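User: Could you check the structure of this?
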Amino acid sequence: MNKNLNLIEGNISSTIIRLALPIMGTSFIQMAYNLTDILWLGQLSTKALAAAGTVGFFMWFGAGLMLISRIGVGVGVSQSYGRDEISEAKKYISHGLQLDILIAVLYSLFLYVFRYRIIDFFNIDDIQVYHMAIDYMKIISLGIVFNFINPIFSTILNSIGDSVTPFKVNTIGLIFNMILDPILIFGIGPVKGMGIKGAAIATVLAQIIVSFIFIVIGEREEKLLYSHRDIFKKIDKSYIWEIAKLGFPAFLQTAAHSGIGMILTRIVAEFGATPIAVQTVGTQIESISWMTSEGFSAAISAFMGQNYGAEKYDRIKEGYRKGMKMVGSIGIFASLFLIFGAKPLFKIFTPDDAYAIEEGIKYLRILGLCQFFMGIEIGTAGAFNGLGKTLMPAIVGVSFNVLRIPMAIVLSNPNLLGLTGVWWSISISSILKGIVLPTWFINTLRKIE
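Assistant: Sure, the predicted structure tokens are below.
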């Protein structure tokens, strides 16, 4: 496996960076899918942005469901690979794919069948935004399975030290999405523009293409450890349970985060449709920071997992120290980027809406204050996951994310901060998480022998 990095030997910093950069690139590609949709939908209307942002919370929840199998597979494969137990790694892969597809099918049915009741939750007054959100969800829900399995394929390869292949495959998907988006949204030649429906169709088609390429690669190169036949293998409940046990805390954290996000959006909706669009665009711009940190987090997780399997505890401790320097630097840069570049950044997406730009600047500057702490928290969560201790990040994440709701309710009072109170509740809780979780991990490191 010549292109797989050796994570249990050699220079720690260069190993983490070489593994992280393609993962980071893959994360940016996933972000670019959303940014591409939002960029074109922003040209369509602010209402289209608000509709896509509303559905985005349920895609976020879906990403949490996918973590049940993704985290379990990542931990199982990396630790088995570190112990040179390849057959064991393959068992985690086959059972992880089976669990992932089952969850995806069930969630797809849920979104499609209950789409009206789901969108009703937000109490959207604008009937046009409401129907756009319904149309967008109906199409997106039909492609959920492909949206679920592609990150699993990427995680499998990342865990064995090959982060380049997922980057290349996802880049191809992004190119297709970038080409299809303007064609299907606005129309060209004989193709009639479909508005927000076109954005959803473009995303689903791009994900199908990525899945097909991953499967073809797996069939041609047995060293990648997976093939389409994995989903038909006999189920061993012990592996399903182990994967679910490892991944469930991460799902719980993301599910709580998305659920809390929905509640915050409901609070934001009281200020009108434009603030929802501001939150949608602002979140995507800010995701540049946390997507970068998550790339390093995934690399740190794979590094920790393999070295933990190989019982190289000194490399674990040194790897964490160096990893935190990297994500901390990213956080500082992101803070400066969001605070000082807020106006030109937001004008890219809503060039003609002065109110949206004004509120967007406030959003980015307030969220810019927490980027260092957010990066440290995300990187530390990856370190915990690599050791198989997935519960700790979930406890910290859920606890402080829940705190956002009472803070937002109080601070958003018109007599206090109004709409910006919601943004402050997010920023303050992120700072607290970035202090508590690394403190917990440092104490954990002291006990590792």
